[in-house]
Amino acid sequence: MRLEARPEISRVMFVAAPFAAVAFTLCVCSLLVAWAGAPVGRAYLLLLEGGFGSRFALSEMLTRATPLILTGLAVAVAFRAKLYNIGAEGQLYAGALAAVAIGGLPASGALPLPALALFVLMFAAAMAAGALLLLGPALLKTRFGVDEVVTTLLLNFIALLFVSLLLDGPMKDPGAMGWPQSVALPAELELAKLVERSRVHTGLLIALALAVLVWIVNRFTAFGVEMRAVGANARAAAFAGMRVQTVVVKTALLSGALAGLAGCIEVAGRAGYVTLDMSPGYGYSGIVIAMLAQLNPLAVVVAAVFVAGVLVGADSMSRAIAVPTYIADVIVATSLISMLAATMLARYRLRWR
Amino acid sequence: MEPPVLTLSGITKRFGALVANDAVSLDLARGEVLGLLGENGAGKSTLVSILFGHYVADEGSITAFGVPLPSGNPAAALAAGIGMVHQHFMLADNLEVLDNILIGTEPLWQPFSRRREARAKVKDTARRFGLAVDPDARVGELSVGERQRVEILKALYRGARILILDEPTAVLTPQESRDLFATLRQLVVEGLAIIFISHKLDEVLAVSDRIAVLRAGRLVAVRAVGKTRKAELAELTVGRKVEMPVRERRVPGHAVVTMRGIGAHDARGHRLLDGIDLDVSAGEIVAVAGVAGNGQQALANLLSGTLAADEGLLRVGGHPLPADPRAWIAARVARIPEDRHAVGVVGDLPVWENAISERLRTPAFTRFGFVRRAASRAHAAALVRRFDVRGAGIDAPTRALSGGNMQKLILGRALSVGGDAAPAFILASQPTWGLDIGAVAYVHQCLLDAATAGAAVLLISEDLDEIFAIADRVGVMCHGRLSAVRPAESWTQAEIGLAMTGTEGAPHAA
After folding, report:
1. What's the angle, vertex CA B290, arms to CA B286 and CA B292, rounded to 5?
2. pLDDT in tens, B293-314
3. Is B335 within 8 Å of chain A by CB?
4. Is the model's pLDDT at A208 over the cut of 80?
5. Closest residue in B to A216 (Cα–Cα)
6. How many beta-carbon contacts under 8 Å exist across A and B?
7. Does residue B321 fall inside a structural domain?
8. With a cut of 0.95, is the ipTM above it?
9. Which residues partner with B219 through β-bridges?
């Protein structure tokens, strides 16, 4: 068995790859479902129903998809420029912390500002915090050639421990009866609900708008050309007069800001305060989503909806039959591996002789 | 007559709609050199890739030494004694030469690499075939020419009995080429069989016993060397008559590029350039000859704005320029880099984005941060038309272009560096490396026309035929130094060869 490069990569195959990957993933995971002793067909049906099958399911799925779109965008932007940002999780927490740090101020009476100004400031602070967290690894990469996979991955743990420190210390909510959670945002800083009697909030609209915006930046701006050129061939980009290091740093700022925004929107749209289990790995799922979307910002939305549906649907399914919710993590992880294989198979042909 | 050592029968290989090889049948006899001629895209590389097991033929079979060769198995090809020296080197840049040669030759369970014996054998092989390479050098730090020597050495080390050389002389001096030819003759006397792939007619005529010509995937002719001429071969490869451009006498104007005592070092302090003095005037083509790895690349980088000189004076159009490609682009310097794929274009981006990449951030192509798509695409379409870039539309990924068409695209982008204004200075580094005859003629004509139009042209080349075809003045680089730059007519082949090996004497003054 061997691989042979395909002379041209067909568009059909490129588009079909993620769907093939997902189909393959579901086949593989059905073995696990069967192993757990549940009927495979019913399990998947329940999963589908739980993720997409009712008004409640859809609203929950969209609530879950909102931060996933943003982390997916953060990763897609960075990966396109070959900046392997594995740290969206940490940047999300940094953004959430910054949002609460600004948004929680009125409670202490420290900052007498109108709500609108505070609202804008809160978003700006969250984006800046996410961006700053990725700025370090980006500068280390461009100045000293330090591998950003390592630095961004490890920064996740530092960020989470820092959050833990603050939640048990200066930012601890005195009214939370000892729970490690931050002070809450005042009601006027929270995002409005999009649909009544659900948790879907206007953050979804912000995420969708940003997906379009990132797509436009990618496709129609000079910066977009530079990002793609630097990602595909940095030497040729430099030869053509592009400032490779500047492009990488700007990309990092954009990526980090998107992930930081995910944290802010989670806080302002859903919880109202920061906890240590605020994100069930949104930053890491963002990597899966970006890969499933082939780094296309618009496809990120679709991929995020898929992943959110699986996560929400698995919760609901596990309540009905004896399959643990971990099946969702397995599905998401397997789809990443299948996607990587599918991308390779779109580029190479398998020869059995 | 003894049976052929290698028989290809009816080899057909399709890539989608493209028929890369169309029922090609060939014999190779013991003790002969078979020249394989053909333009880029004629199917030479595909054919030898099938032979070496990188590709699987759709139809046809291969027999080596009377035994059918299993298809798609490079290990079997190696075991059958087929050695391959690839055009694109198959070397691990981060390893030393010795390790590169040893990769795959030692069993994995052997606890220690037998490096001492291996080193001795490598050195012995190298000496026997005159392939000077330091076994302890890191491949990533070697020049293109040195890497190729490692490739040849690697095949010989593995005891190849059929040796396939893909464009082997592209990076050698005439003397080295002659030495290589002598080596090849020696090898065939000892019973090896050699397939020598090249697009250089003189070379193929000089080294081969028989010549097979491929065109558009078909084997169009097999000729014994005594029974053919250069003109016939040229026509067979291209399928029509080719007119090679002729240099006309021009009167040079003022000096555009002035270099005085230029020196440069790499990051580890090795000297790359040493006391370079060079003037290139408007309307003249100055060529720098030399063996790969003697500082030409540093000179090209310096004049592309990607390397800074540590000493000396460099002026372009009377002004010093910083080591920043943007400044050079702004000064209307047309730069044609040596490595098309790695430096010239971003292969994954569409043709039109590569066509404007040098001037992306200028008002002509970007407004308020947005790319002016209509203007950009119109420019790219015009460029593709004017420079006859074929094989893919402006929306296709640039890597889909063949080498010749990619070079035309780069040439077009470089020559339009000043927008409507003609370039002031053209740096052409190996502009025809690996191109077929038709594309070579085209590139040469473009450079000649540009010089006639008043551009100063510096041609860095390892191909002496090219240099004497179009250069007005010629200098030779060796060990980072540049010889006296003299009129092309005043050099003899022997003098150039001596200068290339650094035996000319002290580098010039003035």
Report:
1. 125
2. 789 999 999 999 999 999 999 9
3. yes
4. yes
5. B370
6. 88
7. yes
8. no
9. B214
